[in-house]
Amino acid sequence: MKKKFNVITSTCVPLPLENVDTDQIIPARFLKETTREERFFGENLFRDWRYNADGTLNKDFVLNNPLYEGEILVAGKNFGSGSSREHAAWAIAGYGFRVVISSFFADIHKNNELNNFVLPVVVSEGFLSELFDSIKEDPKMQVEVDLPNQIVTNKVTGRSEKFEINGYKKYCLMNALDDIDFLLENKKKIEDWEHSNV
User: Fold this and answer.
1) What is the pTM for the complete model shown?
2) CB neighbour class for 42 (10 Å; exposed up to 12, middle 13-18, buried from 19)
3) What is the pLDDT of residues 63-95, one digit of tens each?
4) Which residues contact 77 (CB under 8 A, 6 or more apart)?
5) Is-contact 74 131, C-beta < 8 A?
6) How far is CA 15 from CA 7, 12, 73, in A?
7) Alpha carbon distance, N-terminus to C-terminus of the chain
8) What are phi and psi of 88, to 5 degrees?
9) Taking a C-beta distance cutoff of 8 angstroms, is the pair 115, 89 a contact?
10) Is residue 141 within 8 Å of 159, Cβ to Cβ?
């Protein structure tokens, strides 16, 4: 979803599992779908964890727990490992998450999130552990993610950490631009450069 990114303050959904791979994020059977409709993939995010084999809701899974909601997913270490399917990022964005916080992301998945206007925030394991503790203690606690200053803050403890992001991707997120939009925005500069180098 193309939406300008600045500062997001939100409650969080905790997923304290390590090594969550892209097949768990969106099962392989959904890769055959030709739609890019965000809602479709969002409805099938973590499909095999959200639903039992008979199609009923798994009431024990966090996304089905009414205590937890928000635009921020807090995930365990090594999030998005496995295959390079972009569908995983589509599902995260389609569900409504704008930020995923973890102590480590698989590189390809991290870039897929950025390309789909989801901000992956890498924090220390200590900070991640503190977030999980704070959410467990109070599901309504909030986290602030300040993209311009690249700071994430636990609003309960007041503790903050700086996070890294590629300057180009930061600019694109803050201006709601994909790669094509960025090129079109700079079309005149590109044409001027071409003419000056003939």
Assistant:
1) 0.90
2) middle
3) 999 999 999 999 999 999 988 889 999 999 999
4) 18, 19, 102, 103, 104, 125, 128
5) yes
6) 22, 10, 7
7) 39
8) -60, -45
9) yes
10) no
